[in-house]
Amino acid sequence: MRFGIICAMEEEVGMLAEFILDRKVMNRGMRDYYTGSLWGVPVVLVYSRMGKVAAAATATNIILEFDIDEIIFIGVAGSCSKNVNIGDIVIGKSLYQHDLDASPIFRKHEIPLLGKTYIDTNEKIRKVLTDLCRQFTLNISDNIQENVLKDFGIISPKAITGDIASGDRFISAKEELQSIKDALPSVLCVEMEGAAVGQVCYEYNVPFSVIRIISDTADENAHVDFEKFVDQIASIYSFEILKKYFEIFFEIK
């Protein structure tokens, strides 16, 4: 069994790559794929680059070339709910493409020829990841110093399961965000890759998960220092969550 880890930002890959044992690097399609094992689990780790096309190309290649049995996409996202704050974790349930509109041939948001407006993640894996993420947030001070959390305004972070919207633009205006919320009221956060990975995994029948760490509010207040946030917050979240998951990986399979 081999596990795929996809990150949208190069900085998100760094900490994980350092801990891969027997690490080898293969370059395919202008991307470096790190193979080896993490905490006893055979893995392939890759930086997909931003956007749905880049994410879909990466997901397709990692499935076909590396014979992947399961994928997690992990990275940052912008909140689109007043109940989701910076430092919170959203474990994806249904993944929508908020900018997909092939009407009048298909319904708005419907994926042509699939007859679906969203792709669901694997329920069993989703529940396990939600429990692990909740444990992490409850004990977050074990891994990140209080003053660092305070710098980003992170207070009592939480992990919740919910819907995620993906689209090929960075949302940083209140009007854009409101338009997405009006069309997809169940969505908790917005990003640029998850639904594309979900569609590829659905078509290849590969279980997948999307974990998003909230870095900003996806509006005019989205002024966080992303490089600093990824380095000091998101990379630690990703590392600890995946470590906890892989330590019980074979027990739940």
Describe the model.
- By secondary structure, the chain is α/β, with parallel strands linked by helices.
- The protein has one domain (3-252): Rossmann fold (3-Layer(aba) Sandwich).
- The protein contains eight helices and ten strands.
- It has helices at residues 10-18, 52-66, 123-138, 146-151, 174-183, 194-204, 226-247, 249-252; strands at 3-7, 21-28, 31-38, 41-47, 70-79, 89-97, 119-120, 159-166, 187-191, 208-216.
- The chain has a five-stranded mixed β-barrel.
- Strand 3 (31-38) and strand 4 (41-47) form a beta hairpin.
- Helix 1 packs across helix 7, helix 2 (52-66) runs parallel beside helix 6 and helix 3 packs across helix 7.
- The longest helix is centred in the C-terminal third of the chain and has 22 residues, at 226-247.
- The protein is globular and about 50 Å long.
- It starts with a strand and ends with a helix.
- 42% of the residues are buried.
- The model has no long low-confidence stretch (mean pLDDT 94).
* Biggest sheet strand line-up: 5-9-8-6-10
Distance between the termini: 10 Å
Could you say which structural class the secondary elements and strand pairing correspond to?
alpha/beta
Mean pLDDT across all amino acids: 94
Question: At the third CATH level, what is the topology name?
Answer: Rossmann fold
Output the radius of gyration: 17 Å
Largest sheet entry = 5 strands, mixed, barrel
The CATH class is Alpha Beta
Give the helix level as a range of percent. 25-40%
Q: Rough shape?
A: globular
Any idea what the CATH superfamily is called?
A: Nucleoside phosphorylase domain
- The fraction of residues assigned to DSSP E strands is 25-35%
Are there runs of 5+ residues with pLDDT below 50, and where?
A: none
Order of helices and strands: EHEEEHEEEHHEHEHEHH
Q: Structurally, how many domains make up the residues?
A: 1
Number of strands: 10
